[in-house]
Amino acid sequence: MAVNVKAPIIISQIVAEGMIKRKTGGSIVNVSSKLSLRGRQNRLLYSASKAALDSVTRTMSLELGPHNIRVNAVNPTVAKTDMSKAVWDNPVKTKMVTSVIPLGRFAEVSEVVSVILFLLSDFSSMVSGSCIPIDGGCVANLMT
């Protein structure tokens, strides 16, 4: 909980304080997980902490909106990073997860970054309080 909930709260408060002082408005994007939207066996604390982060995101959007500060979250599936390779290098384990993703694969880091950049940009100036899955349709798949 300290890393997935408390740290983003503290960092967001510091960033928001600066935005409020400068009267610039701005955008904060939290990195959550698709597991916040859909539980998974043996992932209780992780799923709960990311669901809490989604709630923090929505609540902060209400509190900071009057200061023209937007707050959103992205909820990616596994992204292909050096860290994830250690866990997902096993083809059998990978197939078990990718088989319930309609697009049939994990996310590329660039696909997650693209959504974050969009949320930080003026192109999303009316988007706030949203938690956006980047999961190839996994959350929409009722069979998972």
TrEMBL record:
Protein name, entry field: L-xylulose reductase-like
PANTHER family according to UniProt: D-ERYTHRULOSE REDUCTASE, D-ERYTHRULOSE REDUCTASE-RELATED
Phylogenetic placement of the source organism: Eukaryota, Metazoa, Chordata, Tunicata, Ascidiacea
Signal peptide: none
Matches recorded under InterPro entries: L-xylulose/Carbonyl_redctase, NAD(P)-bd_dom_sf, Sc_DH/Rdtase_CS, SDR_fam
Gene3D superfamilies the UniProt entry points to: NAD(P)-binding Rossmann-like Domain
Subunit structure: Homotetramer.
Family, similarity comment: Belongs to the short-chain dehydrogenases/reductases (SDR) family.
Keywords of this entry: NADP, Oxidoreductase
Pfam families referenced in this protein's UniProt entry, alphabetically: adh_short_C2
MF terms (GO), sorted A to Z: carbonyl reductase (NADPH) activity; L-xylulose reductase (NADPH) activity
Listed PROSITE patterns: ADH_SHORT (PS00061)
Keyword DNA-binding: no
GO terms classed as biological process: glucose metabolic process; xylulose metabolic process
Segments forming a coiled coil: none
